[in-house]
């Protein structure tokens, strides 16, 4: 707690929870991360985009789960012992991300964060807020809000479509 | 500032409560003009509102209520007779008062809507002075000012008093009158004190109080019909914010889920440690908790319950106005108004009832002359009835009007292109009645103020659907119409039927389930591209839950399936599910903003085993079902529909002689079928059962080692999914007895050797529907 307080005070850096999808490392601002849980039974929700895997019961709350691999347009992979669900909370909305493997928490100086490259990765760059070079690795920091907004847009267009169908 | 705000809020709450009672009282007053108790209470409302509004300086409202008070005060003192016309003015002024109060609530002042009061005040004054009401001159048989006919107030002096329109009429009173007035007020006061005392002593009889009041004031100008309604029980209430109750309800919901989970765990534990002593103790605790939870849930539910009278109360006034407007005599009879239901439902139920009652008044009840000609009572009767039925409340609206004409409805619907003639023919009367709920379907010949735009009944349908309610209409021409609405008591915690669609589970609100049936696939018919089931005398549309939700098909469909019959508002639908799991108490949980607005899903709930089950939204499910075009029977009867060319068909040739098999194979060649072989019955049966080949026809020799052809056919027919598989006996046994045995064992065709290859070819073609060109 004390240490955390100190780090909060340190305005030069932020802390990020990093995780892997394939060989690429991503980071999420720790202030939005509520908890990390092992993968569990997910109830499929019909009529949703592929990347929405369904919902889970987390101590009485129903939380939607998004498979980050599918969201980023990668192939689905069978879940294994390393597969984890990161529960994020933003604006009082909780959402879970399925990732291949959770790494650790990194403190990254703001000066180390740079603008994401416009191309050169196979990932839709609009979700990437910034990129940092840590040791030998490149960490891509995700913009959670962007991911949320984009999903919502998809949902709304789906709803409109089905309404037109009727 | 805050103080004023608080006072304002209190004022509004109080005013709205008073007004609610007011409408009821006023209509009653009209039929009972001598009821002083009623008059007094009406007067008090106007007075209270006037007092508070002048304190809060709402000048427009003050002015209006002041004039109302004038009229009512006179009526109260017997100076004014309450006639229909007086009533019209008073009711109108009350409507304006309501509008002003709404305006205050919304805008914080009473000037925002710029209401013009001159006209109403002029009329109120006229009424108060007993003059003819301006612009309503034709109807003014009314108000004889000099001779108030309120025979229960035998005061001759009032004549003089009525001359002055001044409110401070005490000044103009003679000494005697003042005396009398004081005496009267004192009496009133005494009576009230007595009333209170009576309540305190919990004396539930009215009689003593009544007797006392009349004895105590025989000479004075006491109100002669003494206090009619003595409150016999004092309701002890506190006002609680709805938010708090909602929160409490949410907590109970969690508790119910916890209880479900506990019960499930107990079942598991019981299985594992059967016979252990601690199980008994555990059982006791679990049962006690489950019992208390249920009681608690009911208790909290009850705190949210309101008597339906809250909604019903506005209808006497409405029917009165309508009957004046339409020039028909209509009486409204209300019963069961003490029936309670959840607050959120009470709020939703008002509008549908308004529309139904309007409809009954406008289209249902005939005018007086027509009724007389038909030998009916001149005054039409509309009955509004509420009662409990299981976990639902039923509201019935009955009128004794002309009833619905099913044939006319059908032809109207065809005329408007809503249904085809074929559909109309297959429609039962009840289904035809349900047509009135279609949007823009009005039976009224002309659009009137009251109805005819074809919107009302659509509103009814939409609102009742929102509540997961069911509407039924019954009608007989010339006798009247009954509209029955069945609505669940509460929306927060619901009983649900858990069903399985392939590997996934869904919860269907039990309130919408009318029954479940097990049917065989043969009972499903296709009519104009729709899948239907004849269920008793009804034709029911069918959809598969897995088609609606696009669930992955995993299981082989069997010969039988389950149908859950759901009803919503006026329509019914059969949903085919793969399994029925059971009934469970579910608490609807939102899936959050992120997953909102998914078609067909109302929310999620947590199962006893901790998993999440999605709750089906019946209304949107029915919408989705309309757009589905899947031939259930075909898609469920193996994969026959995919077979278009002869190569898709497989023939199994069963014969112990290799040569015979080759001959048969050769005869199949012109058709181009795929053939597979088996050398005896046993082998053939194993091949069939393995499911490796999708076999369409079997050619069977009778004489075979290990298992002969008859036995094979009998064995095959034991499997329900092979009931229809063509079995063709190809044999040298030609006797009649052999043929008979072949039929008995289940052979479809019997071909005797020797045969021409063309003949065999034709028989196979016939049985596979591959007709030669």
Detailed description of the structure:
- The complex is a heterodimer of chains A (166) and B (773).
- By secondary structure, chain A is an alpha+beta fold.
- Chain A has one domain (14-165): CheA-289, Domain 4 (OB fold (Dihydrolipoamide Acetyltransferase, E2P)).
- In chain A, 20% of the residues lie in helices and 44% in strands.
- In chain A, the strands form two sheets. Chain A has a six-stranded mixed β-sheet with strand order 8-1-2-11-10-9. In chain A, strands 3-6-7-5-4 form a five-stranded mixed β-sheet.
- The radius of gyration of chain A is 17 Å and the shape is globular.
- By secondary structure, chain B is α/β, with parallel strands linked by helices.
- Chain B has five domains: 2-192, HPT domain (Four Helix Bundle (Hemerythrin (Met), subunit A)), CATH 1.20.120; 242-303, Orthogonal Bundle (Helix Hairpins); 307-488, Histidine kinase-like ATPase, C-terminal domain (Heat Shock Protein 90), CATH 3.30.565.10; 493-639, Beta Barrel (OB fold (Dihydrolipoamide Acetyltransferase, E2P)), CATH 2.40.50; 646-768, Rossmann fold (3-Layer(aba) Sandwich).
- Chain B is built from 26 helices and 23 strands.
- Residues 135-169 and 200-232 of chain B have low confidence and may be disordered.
- The chains are: A alpha+beta (166), B alpha/beta (773).
- At the A-B interface, strand 4, strand 5, strand 7 and helix 3 of A face strand 17, strand 18 and helix 20 of B.
Count every beta strand of chain A, where a strand is a DSSP E run of 2 or more residues.
11
Per DSSP, the total helix count of chain A is: 3
- The coarse silhouette of chain B is elongated
* Structural class by helix and strand composition of chain A: alpha+beta
């Amino acid at each position: 707690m004390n240490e955390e307080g100190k780090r909060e005070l340190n305005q030069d850096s932020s802390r990020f929870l990093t995780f892997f999808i394939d060989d690429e490392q991503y980071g999420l601002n720790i202030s939005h991360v509520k908890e990390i849980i092992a993968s569990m039974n997910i109830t499929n929700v019909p009529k949703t985009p592929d990347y929405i895997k369904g919902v889970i019961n987390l101590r009485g709350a129903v939380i939607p789960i998004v498979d980050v691999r599918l969201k980023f347009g990668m192939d689905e992979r069978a879940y294994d012992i390393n597969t984890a669900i990161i529960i994020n909370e933003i604006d009082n909305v909780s959402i879970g991300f399925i990732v291949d493997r959770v790494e650790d928490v990194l403190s990254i100086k703001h000066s180390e964060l740079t603008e994401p490259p416009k191309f050169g990765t196979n990932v839709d760059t609009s979700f990437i807020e910034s990129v940092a070079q840590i040791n030998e690795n490149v960490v891509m920091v995700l913009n959670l809000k962007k991911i949320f907004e984009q999903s919502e847009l998809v949902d709304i267009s789906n709803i409109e479509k089905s309404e037109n169908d009727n | 500032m805050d103080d004023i705000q608080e006072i304002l809020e209190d004022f509004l709450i109080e005013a709205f409560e008073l007004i609610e009672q007011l409408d009821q009282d006023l209509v009653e007053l009209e039929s009972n003009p001598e009821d002083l108790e009623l008059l007094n209470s009406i007067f008090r409302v106007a007075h209270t509102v006037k007092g508070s509004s002048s304190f809060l300086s709402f000048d427009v409202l003050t002015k209006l209520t002041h004039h109302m008070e004038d009229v009512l005060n006179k009526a109260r003192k017997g100076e004014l007779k309450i006639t229909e016309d007086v009533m019209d003015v008073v009711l109108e002024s009350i409507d304006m008062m309501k509008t002003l109060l709404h305006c205050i609530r919304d805008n914080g002042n009473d000037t925002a809507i710029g209401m013009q009061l001159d006209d109403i005040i002029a009329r109120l004054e006229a009424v108060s002075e007993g003059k003819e009401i301006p612009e309503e001159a034709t109807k003014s048989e009314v108000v004889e000012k000099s001779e108030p006919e309120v025979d229960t107030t035998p005061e001759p002096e009032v004549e003089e008093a009525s001359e002055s329109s001044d409110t401070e009429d005490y000044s103009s009173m003679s000494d005697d009158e003042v005396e009398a007035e004081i005496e009267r007020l004192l009496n009133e006061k005494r009576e009230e004190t007595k009333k209170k005392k009576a309540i305190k002593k919990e004396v539930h009889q009215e009689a003593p109080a009544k007797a006392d009041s009349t004895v105590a004031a025989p000479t004075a100008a006491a109100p002669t019909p003494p206090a009619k309604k003595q409150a016999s029980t004092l309701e002890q209430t506190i006002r609680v914010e709805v938010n708090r109750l909602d929160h409490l309800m949410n907590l109970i919901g969690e508790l119910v889920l916890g209880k479900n989970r506990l019960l499930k765990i107990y079942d598991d534990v019981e299985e594992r440690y059967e016979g252990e002593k601690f199980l008994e103790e555990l059982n006791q605790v679990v049962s006690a908790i489950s019992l208390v939870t249920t009681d608690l849930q009911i208790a909290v539910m009850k705190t949210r319950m309101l008597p339906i009278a809250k909604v019903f109360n506005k209808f006497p006034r409405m029917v009165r106005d309508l009957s004046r407007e339409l020039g028909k005599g209509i009486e409204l009879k209300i019963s069961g108004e003490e029936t309670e239901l959840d607050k959120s439902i009470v709020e939703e139920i008002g509008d549908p009832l308004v529309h139904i009652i309007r409809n009954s008044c406008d289209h249902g009840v005939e005018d007086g002359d027509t009724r007389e000609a038909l030998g009916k009572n001149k005054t039409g009767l509309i009955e509004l009835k509420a009662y409990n039925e299981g976990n639902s409340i039923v509201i019935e609206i009955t009128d004794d009007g002309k009833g619905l004409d099913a044939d006319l409805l059908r032809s109207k619907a065809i005329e408007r292109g809503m249904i085809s003639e074929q559909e109309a023919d297959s429609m039962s009367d009840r289904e035809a009645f349900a047509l009135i709920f279609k949007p823009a379907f009005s039976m009224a010949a002309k659009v009137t103020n009251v109805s005819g735009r074809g919107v009302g009944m659509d509103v009814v349908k939409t609102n009742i659907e929102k509540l997961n309610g069911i509407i039924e209409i019954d009608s007989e021409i010339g006798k009247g119409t009954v509209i029955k609405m069945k609505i669940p008591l509460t929306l927060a915690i619901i009983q649900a039927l858990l069903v399985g669609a392939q590997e996934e589970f869904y919860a269907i609100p039990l309130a919408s389930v009318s029954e479940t049936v097990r049917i065989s696939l043969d009972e499903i018919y296709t009519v104009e591209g729709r899948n239907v089931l004849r269920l008793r005398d009804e034709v029911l549309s069918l959809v598969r839950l897995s088609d609606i939700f696009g669930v992955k098909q995993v299981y082989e469909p069997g010969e039988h399936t389950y149908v859950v019959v759901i009803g919503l508002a006026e329509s019914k639908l059969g949903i085919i599910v793969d399994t029925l799991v059971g009934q469970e108490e579910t608490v609807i949980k939102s899936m959050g903003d992120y997953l909102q607005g998914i078609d067909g899903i109302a929310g999620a709930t947590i199962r006893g085993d901790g998993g999440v089950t999605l709750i089906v939204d019946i209304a949107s499910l029915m919408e989705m079902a309309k757009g589905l075009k899947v031939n259930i029977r075909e898609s469920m009867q193996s994969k026959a529909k995919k077979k278009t060319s002869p190569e898709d068909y497989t023939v199994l040739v069963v014969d112990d002689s290799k040569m015979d098999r080759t001959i048969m194979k050769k005869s199949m060649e012109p058709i181009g079928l795929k053939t597979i072989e088996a050398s005896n019955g046993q082998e053939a049966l194993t091949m069939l059962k393995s499911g490796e080949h999708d076999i369409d026809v079997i050619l069977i020799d009778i004489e075979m080692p290990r298992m002969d052809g008859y036995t094979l056919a009998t064995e095959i027919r034991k499997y329900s999914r092979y009931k229809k598989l063509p079995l063709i006996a190809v044999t040298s046994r030609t006797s009649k007895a052999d043929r008979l045995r072949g039929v008995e064992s289940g052979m479809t065709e019997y071909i005797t050797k020797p045969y021409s290859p063309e003949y065999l070819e034709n028989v196979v073609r016939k049985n596979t529907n591959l007709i030669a060109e």
